[in-house]
């Protein structure tokens, strides 16, 4: 089997959201696992809404997820290919001019619905003669161009959904080119897929109906359609559909809250599939878990609370080598001993800053019983300290004071960290060190 050539084709009209990331990641993982090619195609033929800043944001978001396109292209630079395809379709009689205004089409649809007929285009423009077309154009009307569908059932074996079919007699002939000469999505997409040799088109299930039209268009242009796969869509936790325009769960927003890209990737890909959602340590590992045939048909809810919990589980597994540079950028040092001490208490990597501040100081200790903590300070053993120091010291404090359980441990934790919870003090105490520990136990800022 040849190596896959796949594409991710966002429009640079807004920020990518987690649903877009699902599509991008699935395509990337298919390419990665099969030693194939991943193409980033910016569908920017909508000149009015496309923005350079959104194109840059798309590249940044994909890079953050770990996706490095093998090739990047813009549809706005490929218009000559689409113009050539138009000429070919017109010559075949498969693309025809229509002159109805949007208001006229809407009134026609309402009349059809009132008569119990499906609201599809009635192909009235095919009945226009050359003289009538000339008269309409003399009135200032410019045609939009529709693709003449064969009224037959188009079937394909979907990589996700299995056997699928669409009766094209139930569809309107789609508009491929607007009155102003600009292109809608369908024609450029098919032309590019043919030109690039795309082998698999993997996208959201909202494109299922488009597939029948596109298969006919592939055939009309003399090409072979790629394999199609339509995955289920993600919703918000409340079941609301995701929108770039409304900024739902944007990757930029998730990134700015300090979440790990591997946690975002794992939840985006595994939710709504037969695989249990779990942390992964690499995209290679995630690729091994992806099976298109095991993706559910039902929409999947992307829950931010689940993402935060998954992010924590991932951090608890990561070795220092995976985060060393980012910790350094946050001003956190301490090496392996510090990381192993605190990682089990992190939800986000930035939480490590708080625990580094506890280790390095100064902090203002919280003293509940000055006499008790001063006595505990007197019992601190001489350094060097190690992982057994905490147990030896607290046993000595317990023996002298009679305190035990919460009455023993909580005053010491408050004094040493100014917090009522956190990493195991057996690991933190050697990092804090004797001078700071003694000062804090005596109520001094250190």
TrEMBL record:
Keyword hit for Nucleotide-binding: yes
Main location: cytoplasm
Swiss-Prot/TrEMBL keywords: Aminoacyl-tRNA synthetase, ATP-binding, Cytoplasm, Ligase, Nucleotide-binding, Protein biosynthesis
'HIGH' region (motif): residue ranges: 10-20
Entry's EC annotation: 6.1.1.17
Alphabetical list of Pfam families matching this protein: Anticodon_2 (PF19269), tRNA-synt_1c (PF00749)
Domain of life according to the entry: Bacteria
Domain Glutamyl/glutaminyl-tRNA synthetase class Ib catalytic per the UniProt entry, residue ranges: 6-307
Binding positions for ATP per the UniProt entry: 244
Database matches in InterPro entries: aa-tRNA-synth_I_cd-bd, aa-tRNA-synth_I_codon-bd_sub2, aa-tRNA-synth_I_CS, aa_tRNA-synth_I_cd-bd_sf, Glu-tRNA-ligase_bac/mito, Glu/Gln-tRNA-synth, Glu/Gln-tRNA-synth_Ib_cat-dom, GluQ/Sye
Sequence ranges assigned to domain Aminoacyl-tRNA synthetase class I anticodon-binding in this UniProt record: 383-442
Cell compartments where the protein resides: Cytoplasm
Matches recorded under Gene3D superfamilies: 1.10.10.350, HUPs
Subunit structure: Monomer.
Cross-referenced HAMAP family: Glu_tRNA_synth_type1
Function: Catalyzes the attachment of glutamate to tRNA(Glu) in a two-step reaction: glutamate is first activated by ATP to form Glu-AMP and then transferred to the acceptor end of tRNA(Glu).
Family to which the UniProt record says this protein belongs: Belongs to the class-I aminoacyl-tRNA synthetase family. Glutamate--tRNA ligase type 1 subfamily.
Protein name per its UniProtKB record: Glutamate--tRNA ligase
Naturally occurring in which organism (per UniProt): Chelatococcus albus
Gene: gltX
């Amino acid at each position: 089997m040849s190596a896959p050539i796949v594409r991710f084709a966002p429009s640079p009209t807004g920020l990518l959201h987690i649903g877009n990331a699902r599509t991008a990641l699935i395509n990337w993982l298919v390419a990665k696992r099969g030693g194939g090619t991943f193409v980033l195609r910016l569908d920017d033929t909508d000149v009015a809404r496309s923005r350079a800043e959104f194109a840059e944001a798309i590249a940044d978001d994909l890079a953050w997820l770990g996706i490095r396109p093998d090739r990047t292209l813009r549809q706005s630079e490929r218009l000559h290919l689409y113009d050539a395809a138009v000429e070919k379709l017109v010559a075949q009689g498969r693309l025809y001019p229509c002159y109805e205004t949007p208001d006229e089409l809407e009134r026609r649809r309402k009349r059809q619905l009132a008569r119990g007929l499906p609201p599809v285009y009635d192909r009235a423009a095919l009945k226009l003669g050359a003289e009538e077309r000339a008269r309409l154009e003399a009135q200032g009307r410019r045609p939009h161009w529709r693709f003449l569908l064969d009224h037959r059932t188009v079937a394909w074996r979907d990589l996700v959904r299995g056997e699928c079919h669409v009766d094209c007699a139930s569809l309107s002939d789609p508009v491929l080119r607007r009155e102003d000469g600009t292109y809608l999505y369908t024609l450029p997409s098919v032309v590019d897929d043919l030109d690039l040799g795309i082998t698999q088109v993997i996208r959201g299930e909202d494109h299922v109906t488009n597939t029948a039209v596109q298969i006919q268009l592939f055939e009309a242009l003399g090409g072979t359609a790629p394999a199609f796969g339509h995955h289920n869509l993600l919703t918000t936790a409340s079941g609301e559909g995701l929108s770039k325009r409304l900024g739902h769960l944007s990757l930029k927003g998730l990134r700015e809250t300090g979440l790990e890209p591997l946690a975002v990737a794992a939840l985006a890909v595994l939710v709504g599939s037969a695989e249990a959602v779990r942390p992964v340590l690499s995209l290679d590992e995630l690729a091994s878990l992806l099976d298109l045939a095991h993706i559910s048909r039902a929409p999947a809810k992307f829950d931010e609370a689940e993402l935060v919990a998954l992010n924590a589980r991932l951090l608890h597994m990561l070795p220092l080598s995976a985060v060393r540079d980012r910790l350094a950028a946050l001003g956190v040092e301490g090496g392996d001993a510090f990381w192993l001490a605190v990682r089990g208490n992190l939800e986000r990597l930035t939480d490590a800053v708080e625990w580094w501040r506890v280790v390095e100081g100064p902090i203002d200790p919280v003293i509940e019983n000055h006499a008790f903590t001063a006595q505990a300070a007197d019992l601190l053993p001489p350094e060097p300290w190690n992982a057994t120091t905490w147990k030896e010291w607290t046993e000595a404090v317990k023996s002298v004071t009679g305190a035990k359980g919460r009455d023993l441990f909580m005053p010491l934790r408050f004094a040493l960290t100014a917090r009522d919870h956190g990493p195991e003090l057996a690991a933190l105490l050697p990092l804090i060190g004797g001078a700071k520990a003694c000062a804090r136990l005596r109520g001094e800022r250190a």
